[in-house]
Automatic annotation (TrEMBL):
UniProt-annotated location(s): Membrane
Protein's name according to its UniProt entry: Calcium-transporting ATPase
InterPro entries in alphabetical order: ATPase_P-typ_cation-transptr_C, ATPase_P-typ_cation-transptr_N, ATPase_P-typ_cyto_dom_N, ATPase_P-typ_P_site, ATPase_P-typ_TM_dom_sf, ATPase_P-typ_transduc_dom_A_sf, ATPase_P-type_domA, Ca_ATPase_N_dom
UniProt xrefs under Pfam families: CaATP_NAI (PF12515), Cation_ATPase (PF13246), Cation_ATPase_C (PF00689), Cation_ATPase_N (PF00690), E1-E2_ATPase (PF00122)
Primary localization: membrane
Protein task: Catalyzes the hydrolysis of ATP coupled with the transport of calcium.
Length: 1098
């Protein structure tokens, strides 16, 4: 189906594909040959990986499409639309990429035309007058003019409006104070220019899930068989009695479809809510002269938006002011080129990222009236993504499915052979088929019943719900993790976190509170106490400090007209220094209006400092620098003492270095403020030269050194200890002074004692960076604290640790952290201080920037793996028991004790209800007392094999004894009604079998612990599902006998059923006392197989 969406602003039709699922029906293809470069690539990543196994994918993050396509083709699938629902639709992804390229081409054409025009003209001249703005309701400019000007980058049109200042007048916006905070004004703007939203494809409704649930090939066959059985039954026995057999199968199939669809629909709603959270970006804008935080959806045309490095441009707009502002337009143009924005190229496109510098913009286009909105509305967002566990479970499901299919075919062949050779008897002892006597209708009906049993065995045997159980537990975990302040962007990270062996954490804001205050200040050689006491300083010193702080800052100060509390915005460090300067007497707005900024060198995490050149009212040019104390100090040749006199640095440098070390040892962040005069002849005269001006950073005059306190978070020491006990090493990677890093690490428990503080346990980034690659890999294992590190040092550390076999989680908040976040197995960005670039490169966003939340993510990651293992153990026990009971009974007697309807009910308990009950178990403290889950650790551990084999063996033994000797044991041999006696026996077998599964569900909760009831009463979902299953079982036995071919059981037989089921509890306790070998059982089978394959592959 092709849908066309018309967008009024651009009058462009964009086709949107909503095609059918990529796969249909049963797909069982042989593993395709893999190109040798790809095979070598994966072997390099993981030497233990088996390149011939399509399901052996250790990391789906950044996996090539060939690998993803390969495992899909190798999977045995009964219902592709359901099985592959939450995996990436590779076909749709390709279509989306093509559509993105098409829309990007539009932006490229505009850009090429603009560059051509700028190259041919020294200054922009408009040859043809542009039409005057048409009245846009309450505004002097209309939507179409704005959209056209911004979209086509019409600089001449902007100039005719009077530049950005004239445009702000047309939009009734103050460039310094922004729009009003008045709701009526904001509503007017939305009505006139639209809201910052775009139409999105509506989520699938419940009926669509119902439609998908019944597209299971085996269910379709069962429906056909039920229809045939219904027709034959009514024909031979009449409507009153003949509809039961076919009707009961219909009802059972409908129940399976309904429960499956309901479960899947609930999952879908959870994912929709989480995706909405991801899209809802919070940003700072200027309204009413103050900096306020709003949702990206609340942005309106006319808003003034400050931009800084790492931000996403939230809408189309025009540059107001910018300093070294560089924009990465690759998301729109497809080119990785960085574009510098200035008054000659002032147009900003929504969806692009700020790569460098800072500035502010006037919003001129929002939502669907932007190129980005058009792009987002025209592609159907696919949130599908497979995880390593999901892929492995598809492999397990395929293996079990093949075994089950083989068993079903064997049972079908045996039952048909016995039937047509006259070896199958009715309950009364008469032969079912006698050649020449049995009517065609009776024979056909019997064959349909046999065929139905075989198909139902396939339904039970092929665990379609196994891979979906991963999605269920991930959806549950993601929802709960939101409450624990962690927003999951990639599903795979949720489970990979359970395998994490090391966490490389930032210091500021993660291990500390990010609530900074200046607690020490040194001006000249004098310690100012209290640090904001201006009476101890000469007025000229206060003036220079105030100028340096006010102009060399990306923060802002808002002083309410009514004399209320001063509001300070910016990064925590900026806020601390601005607050200190205000207490010294700084008048922020007055200083900014008295001097003009000529050029800005934005703070750089590589150089650890930032600078600004300002022209004062007396025409003097001052260059102010601010940054890491020891780095700024190294560039100083003089200092200003507290009396305002210049002093030489030569003799006193050691004093300042000692002061810095003393502050750092007290866990303080040390920041130095310095300045210098710049000769007029060295100041560039025009704007273009000014943009390329390299600010001088030598011969500086030191103004002050401030010590900023950022206390450790409460509970961070406990969180670090929990990680250490769980086998996860915590490493601190910080840009701060090595002494500050050491002090905080000791305070947090990352370093156990001062004796640990030797290289390479604690190391500087420059030292690590200088090491040869091989040596870096060896040293990386020993590093606990890295100080004065750059983002590139963090990336090198991550790469070295991963090569050494670690599963690495990394925290980051800056734009330059993006490569490390992308490279790590799990990238964790900060929700409060993190830039949009960092968030987009990460897998999980820590919403409260707290290290304790990172530890909770580890717990949930381990819980995902543990819950899946519980479900596998439970499901395989049912699989093995049901298959063995039916196969042995079919071969020996030609009949099966568990019929189609009963098996469908068992399938429902095992598949959907079992997944709901076990895959949503909350994490326990016990999870953090074991080692991380290895990438290659088998899904089915030796403990699981022991548990499931004991339970399956018990169930098979008891139920087969009942099947063959049940009449004697129950004293029913002398029953006059032979058929009723058989029904009682089979009803008891069915009832006992179901109760065994209900009781075994408790055992599956704690595969390794003796007490399987611990915490069960707190898990209301588990108790609810067990109760629901039990009530339904009672209803089936007591009231639905006609449908399930069962009879009512008296209280003695109910006690027998409960007794058989309850024995599984003490049996499980005894079983858990049996020791198991540490070497996985699978290794004994795989090793010879691999040895045979290697010579053949060589």
């Amino acid at each position: 189906m092709i849908l066309a969406a018309k967008f009024s602003a651009s009058s462009v039709f964009i086709p949107c594909s909503c095609g059918p699922p990529l796969y249909k029906g049963i797909v069982l293809l042989c593993s395709a040959g893999v190109p040798s470069p790809l095979r070598q690539y994966f072997c390099h990543l993981d030497p233990d990986a088996d390149p011939s196994d399509p399901f052996d994918i250790a990391q789906t993050k950044n996996a090539p499409p060939e690998t993803l396509k390969r495992w899909r083709q190798a999977a045995l699938v009964l219902n592709a639309s359901r099985r592959f629902r939450y995996t990436l639709d590779l076909k749709k992804e390709e279509e989306n990429e093509q559509r993105k390229r098409m829309i990007r081409a539009h932006a490229q054409v505009i850009r090429a035309a603009l560059l051509f025009k700028l190259a041919g003209e020294n200054q922009i001249v408009s040859d043809t007058p542009v039409a005057l703005p048409v009245d846009g309701g309450d505004y002097a400019i209309g939507l179409e003019q704005l959209a056209s000007m911004t979209r086509d980058h019409k600089l001449s049109v902007l100039e005719q409006y009077g530049g950005v200042k004239g445009l702000s007048g047309l939009l009734r916006t103050n460039l310094e104070k922004g729009t009003n905070e008045d709701e009526a004004d904001l509503l007017n703007r939305r009505n006139a220019f639209g809201s910052n939203t775009y139409p999105r494809k509506k989520g699938r409704g419940f009926w669509m899930f119902l439609w998908e649930a019944w597209q299971d090939l085996t269910l379709i066959i069962l429906i056909i068989a039920a229809a045939v059985s219904l027709g034959l039954g009514i024909k031979t026995e009449g409507l009153k009695e003949g509809w039961y057999d076919g009707g009961s199968i219909f009802f059972a199939v409908f129940l399976v479809i309904l429960v499956t669809a309901t479960s899947d629909y609930r999952q879908s709603l959870q994912f929709q809510n989480l995706n909405e959270e991801k899209r809802n970006i919070q940003l700072e804008i200027i309204r009413g002269g103050r900096t306020v935080k709003v949702s990206i959806y609340d942005l309106v045309v006319g808003d003034v938006v400050p931009l800084k490095i790492g931000d996403q441009v939230p809408a189309d707009g025009v540059l107001i002011t910018g300093h070294s502002l560089a924009i990465d337009e690759s998301s729109m143009t497809g080119e990785s080129k960085i574009v510098h924005k200035n008054q000659k190229e002032p147009f900003l496109m929504s969806g692009c990222k700020v790569a460098d510098g800072f500035g502010s913009m006037l919003v001129t286009g929002v939502g669907i009236n932007t190129e980005w909105g058009l792009l987002m509305a025209s592609i159907s967002e696919d949130t599908g993504e497979e995880t390593p566990l999901q892929v492995r479970l598809n492999g397990v499901a395929t293996f079990i499915g093949i075994v089950g299919l083989s068993v079903a075919v064997s049972v079908l062949a045996v039952l048909l052979a016995r039937y047509f050779t006259g070896n199958t008897e009715n309950p009364d002892g008469t032969t079912q088929f006698i050649k020449g006597r049995t009517s065609f209708d009776d024979a056909f009906n019997d064959v349909v019943k046999i065929f139905t049993i075989a198909v139902t065995i396939v339904v039970v045997a092929v665990p379609e719900g196994l891979p979906l159980a991963v999605t269920l537990t991930l959806a549950y975990s993601m929802r709960k993790m939101m409450a624990d302040k962690a927003l999951v962007r990639r599903l795979s990270a949720c489970e990979t976190m359970g395998s994490a062996t090391t966490i490389c954490s930032d210091k500021t804001g993660t291990l500390t509170l990010n609530e900074m205050t200046v607690v020490e200040a040194i001006v000249g050689k004098k310690k100012i106490n209290p640090p904001a006491d201006s009476s101890q300083l000469h007025p000229s010193v206060v003036s220079l400090l105030s100028e340096g702080v006010a102009q060399n800052s990306t923060g802002n100060v808002f002083v309410p007209e009514d004399g209320g509390k001063v509001e300070i915005s910016g990064s925590p460090t900026e806020k601390a220094i601005l607050s200190w300067a205000i207490k010294l007497g700084m008048e922020f707005d007055a200083i900014r209006s008295e001097s003009t900024i000529l050029h800005v060198f934005p703070f750089n995490s590589e150089k650890k400092r930032g600078g600004v050149a300002v022209r004062r009212s007396d025409s003097e040019v001052h260059i102010h620098w601010k940054g890491a104390a020891e780095i700024v100090l190294a560039a100083c040749s003089r200092y200003l003492d507290s009396n305002g006199c210049l002093q030489s640095m030569d003799e006193d440098k050691e004093f300042f270095e000692a002061a810095i070390d003393k502050m750092a040892a007290s866990s303080l962040r040390c920041v130095a403020l310095a300045y210098r005069l710049c000769e007029q002849e060295k100041v560039p005269s025009d704007e273009e030269s000014c943009n390329d001006w390299v600010l001088p950073e030598d011969n500086l005059v030191l103004l002050a050194i401030v010590g900023i306190k950022d206390p450790c978070r409460l509970g961070v020491k406990d969180a670090v200890k929990i990680c250490m006990d769980a086998g996860v090493k915590v490493r601190m990677v910080t840009g701060d002074n090595i002494q500050t890093a050491k002090a905080i690490a000791l305070e947090c428990g990352i370093l156990s004692s001062a004796q640990d503080v030797t290289e390479p346990t604690i190391i500087e980034g420059r030292v690590f960076r200088a090491l040869p690659e091989k040596e870096r890999e060896q040293i990386a294992k020993k590093i606990t604290v890295m100080g004065r590190s750059s983002p590139n040092d963090k990336l090198l550390l991550v790469q070295a640790l991963r090569k050494g076999g670690d599963v690495v989680a990394v925290t980051g908040d800056g734009t330059n952290d993006a490569p490390a976040l992308h490279e790590a197995d799990i990238g964790l960005s900060m929700g409060i201080q993190g830039t949009e670039v960092a968030k987009e490169s990460s897998d999980i966003i820590i919403l409260d920037d707290n290290f304790a939340s990172v530890v909770k993510v580890v717990r949930w990651g381990r819980s995902v793996y543990a819950n899946i293992q519980k479900f596998i153990q439970f499901q395989l026990t049912v699989n093995v028991a049901a298959l063995v009971i039916n196969v042995v009974a079919a071969i020996s007697s030609g009949d099966v004790p568990l019929n189609s309807v009963q098996l469908l009910w068992v399938n429902l308990i095992m598949d959907t209800l079992g997944a709901l009950a076990l895959a949503t178990e909350p994490p326990t403290d016990n999870l953090m007392h074991r080692s991380p889950v290895g990438r290659r650790e088998p899904l089915i551990t030796n403990i699981m094999w022991r548990n499931l084999l004991i339970q399956a063996l018990y169930q098979v033994t008891v139920l087969l004894v009942l099947n063959f000797s049940g009449l004697t044991i129950l004293g029913l041999e002398d029953d006059g009604d032979r058929e009723h006696a058989y029904k009682v026996k089979n009803s008891l077998i069915f009832n006992a079998f179901v109760l065994c599964q209900i009781f075994n569900e408790f055992n599956a909760r704690k595969p390794e612990e003796i007490n399987c009831f611990k915490g069960v009463t707190k898990n209301y979902l588990f108790m609810g599902i067990v109760g629901f299953t039990l009530i339904l079982q009672i209803i089936i036995i007591e009231f639905l006998g006609k449908f399930t071919s069962t009879v009512r059981l008296d209280w003695q037989l109910w006690l027998v059923s409960i007794g058989i089921g309850i024995i599984s509890w003490p049996l499980a306790i005894v079983g858990k006392l049996i020791p198991v070998p540490k070497t996985p059982l699978s290794a004994f089978f795989i090793k010879p197989f691999r040895q045979c394959r290697r010579p053949r592959d060589a």
